Automatic annotation (TrEMBL):
Provenance organism: Corchorus capsularis
A Pfam family matched in the record: Methyltransf_11
Organism lineage string: Eukaryota, Viridiplantae, Streptophyta, Embryophyta, Tracheophyta
Protein name from the UniProt record: Methyltransferase type 11
UniProt GO MF annotations: S-adenosylmethionine-dependent methyltransferase activity
Domain Methyltransferase type: 72-173
Family label: Belongs to the methyltransferase superfamily.
Domain of life: Eukaryota
GO BP annotations listed: methylation
UniProt entry keywords in alphabetical sequence: Methyltransferase, Multifunctional enzyme, Transferase
Length: 761
């Protein structure tokens, strides 16, 4: 325990106290020790008197004799007797050892007749609220806080102390101030308490020893927060260095936290802090209130949780219910939607709850199923419900679901660049549990953004599909990879080694969106295709290779180059998604940004952009030079996953939307060049910032917001030719004729999507 004993008992006696929280051990200890042999753990009366008595005399009471003092865990210490003899006669002593209470009653019944002695557990006191002016603890908390037992008993005890103290009452705790004790004590007395720390004088000693400290917490009528004041400096302490440094660190850390509270920093509150009014009256809704907190304490619940309480903004009504809980799995807790304030408000608005308690699961919850989590959380969230909710009403729990009926993991591996990677085959179901999509899909998932599906492809038995099945599938809602939530992990045998990816079907709606934007240059595409020449397209970010393979199959006039930083992705695309290379489709393992820069440097001399050189050549330069410059990029697509979720963008990486890179892109594009970027962010501010940068660079700008998704596909044009929105259906018809697809429904899907293109410059 590391406790200094000023009056050492024999070794035989100490062996009876192996567990300081055992009533039987203490009964045995006091039986052996006897009635008259008092035992002081630390702080004898001479060292304690001059510091303690002034504190008691400051209490607002008519006289010292009427000051109601409680001494919990009294043992056979003479502390109460000294108080009585000093004039404080209204003293109640409690201990859970019947032996010691009987002994102390006999010892004091004649000389101190007004002293009270009761057998009682200090963690479950049988007193009314606001009973005592002073609770005086001498080593009781320290005894409950054995490190191997955890803080449960100490936490219960301090809650009882706070309950039985009157307003303006004092909790005086004599302690060795070990770090694990102060780590509980200081946070329990934050809001509505004025805390001071004193060092008691030490007995003369030849070497540094343990020192006793006195923590004084005064109960205030308000929920104000104060810094902890101490009566000493670190250098003035005479105790051993280990005790002094531990105390100093605990005090500095607590005052730092209190300083952050006082400055309005966004830090975690405890439920007890909130119930004391740290962020206003929790029983009432306060529109726009957002509070981060912790739920659950060791011993009170199976787990502890990080949570965010959000009271919906006034304009967000009407509401479906007063209070709800939204559970976020560990794999999604880092996402912008759940980790940022802006994203959390979006969840509140969608939930239609007047108060939403968002619970962010972590590693400690990994092996618990959702039913256990909800059962554990239910009693913890009840105190957070507004008072106007019917006490009999159950608080609804919500979680995200992707409607997966079956799942089969076909690959699990890792890359030094991408991290853990999963390829899985899934079968979807609708809300009623019936299969909503008749064929399985293969999905690529990066576990660093495990809530998102990077790529998704339709599986068939022979890599082909008949028209009727494709038509049925296209009538159903397309999924949106890189914006779809994952469901709970389950292993089921849904895939077959005979099944292959079908490249004639676009499973991802954002792929359809990207291709629909080709209508903006469909006249150019048509003119090139009619002469038998090729259009150069570069796709940065291979993924599973689905977009390049679809373009390769349906637009045979394209010369496609894909750029991928991670060589493992090329292997996965080849082995699991049927990706192949030929003379019209090549892959470069390279950094995408550097690839574009190198391309510009190769084909652009000096400072004149390639598309402007081609303008000059078309106005009179010799044709052989113009042909030599025909290697300019006609279509450049950025579809790169970001490894830094803190940027607020899942796609692309932030460097791809820096103005310097955007200008490099424009310099590299041909005269009729089209720049396409798939932007995945839930932040309107981030989207606006990207659009603003692109406005500065490109002649014309269009965007496509996919319905119900976070993907925003942005198209930049180099040409000065402006295509009005009312002409887009015409240009889309021209594009549709260029598509060589077996399924007219695909062209219809692209045509319908193109109708949503909006000109923003």
């Amino acid at each position: 325990m590391g406790k200094k004993k000023t009056q050492q008992p024999s070794n035989d006696l100490l062996t009876t106290l192996g567990d300081f929280t055992s009533k039987e051990n203490w009964d045995s200890f006091f039986t052996i020790r006897g009635t008259d042999d008092s035992f002081e753990w630390y702080a004898e009366w001479p060292q304690l008197r001059d510091s303690l008595l002034p504190l008691l005399q400051q209490q607002p009471s008519p006289s010292s004799s009427s000051l109601q003092i409680l001494v919990p865990g009294c043992g056979n210490s003479r502390l109460s007797e000294h108080l009585y003899d000093a004039g404080f006669q209204d003293v109640t002593n409690i201990d859970f050892s019947k032996v010691v209470i009987s002994d102390m009653l006999r010892r004091n019944v004649r000389d101190r007749p007004n002293m009270r002695w009761r057998v009682m557990d200090m963690t479950q006191m049988q007193f009314m609220n606001d009973t005592f002016d002073v609770v005086l603890d001498k080593g009781g908390l320290d005894a409950l806080m054995e490190k191997e037992l955890g803080p449960k008993l100490g936490n219960q005890y301090l809650s009882e102390v706070k309950r039985v103290l009157k307003p303006r009452g004092k909790f005086i705790c004599l302690t060795l101030a070990e770090s694990h004790i102060l780590g509980l004590l200081f946070p329990k007395f934050r809001f509505g308490w004025n805390v001071s720390l004193y060092a008691l004088p030490m007995e003369p000693s030849s070497k540094p020893d343990f020192q006793t400290f006195m923590v004084v917490a005064e109960k205030e009528n308000s929920s104000e927060l104060h810094q902890i004041m101490s009566s000493f400096t670190h250098s003035s302490l005479g105790c051993n260095k280990l005790q002094a440094s531990g105390l100093h660190e605990a005090l500095e850390n607590e005052n730092r936290i209190r300083g952050e509270y006082l400055s309005g920093s966004d830090i975690l509150y405890s439920l007890e802090d909130l119930q004391l009014g740290a962020k206003g009256d929790l029983t009432k809704l306060s529109p726009g209130r957002r509070v981060q907190l912790t739920l659950g304490e060791q011993g009170d619940s199976r787990f502890s949780y990080k949570a965010v309480l959000l009271d919906a903004k006034q304009e967000a009504g009407p509401f479906s219910f007063h209070c709800g809980v939204f559970i976020v799995p560990k794999t999604r807790a880092h996402e912008w939607l759940f980790s940022s304030e802006e994203g959390q408000w979006q969840v509140v608005e969608s939930s239609k709850a007047a108060r939403l308690i968002m619970v962010l699961l972590g590693t400690i919850h990994a092996n618990a199923d959702m039913e256990d989590i909800q059962k554990d959380l239910s009693p913890l969230v009840k105190p957070l419900a507004p008072s106007d909710i019917d006490k009999g009403d159950r608080i609804p729990f919500m979680t995200a679901s992707d409607g997966i009926k079956q799942r089969d993991i076909v690959y699990q591996g890792s890359s030094s660049l991408t991290g853990p990677i999963v390829v899985e085959d899934v079968v979807y179901e609708n809300a009623d549990g019936d299969v909503n999509r008749s064929l399985p899909f293969r999905r690529l998932i990066f576990q660093r953004t495990e809530g998102l599906v990077q790529s998704e492809a339709l599986l068939t038995t022979d890599g082909d599909i008949d028209k009727s099945v494709c038509e049925t599938e296209l009538k159903k809602a397309n999924s949106s990879s890189k914006s779809k939530r994952r469901g709970a992990h389950r292993r089921n045998n849904v895939s077959s080694s005979k099944m292959k990816v079908y490249h004639g079907y676009l499973a991802s709606s954002y792929h359809t969106g990207i291709i629909s934007g080709f209508s903006l240059i469909s006249s150019y595409l048509e003119s090139v295709a009619s002469t038998g020449n090729t259009v150069k397209a570069v796709v940065i970010g291979l993924g599973a290779g689905l977009l390049p393979m679809f373009l390769h199959g349906c637009m045979q006039f394209l010369q496609i180059e894909a750029v991928e930083l991670d060589p493992i992705m090329l292997n996965l695309a080849t082995d699991y998604f049927g990706f192949t290379q030929d003379k019209r489709l090549k892959v470069h393992i390279a950094d995408g940004i550097q690839f574009v820069r190198d391309y510009r440097n190769l084909f652009v001399d000096g400072e004149t952009p390639l598309h402007k050189k081609k303008d000059a050549l078309s106005n009179g330069s010799n044709s052989s030079d113009a042909e030599g410059l025909s290697a300019g990029i006609d279509i450049l697509i950025i579809d790169v996953n970001s490894s830094d979720s803190s940027s607020g963008m899942t796609c692309p990486a932030a460097d791809f939307v820096e103005e310097s890179f955007l200008r490099t892109v424009k310099d590299t594009l041909s005269e009729q060049g089209l720049f396409v970027i798939n932007l995945v962010s839930r932040s309107p501010a981030i989207k606006d910032a990207v659009v603003s940068r692109m406005r500065e660079v490109f002649s014309h700008l269009y965007c496509l917001q996919l319905e119900g998704e976070v993907n925003l596909v942005i198209f930049g044009l180099c040409s000065d030719t402006y295509i009005k929105e009312d002409r887009i259906p015409e240009t889309t018809n021209r594009l549709e004729k260029l598509l060589k697809s077996k399924h007219p429904e695909i062209g219809q899907s692209i045509r319908d999507t193109a109708k949503k293109l909006k000109c923003i410059k």
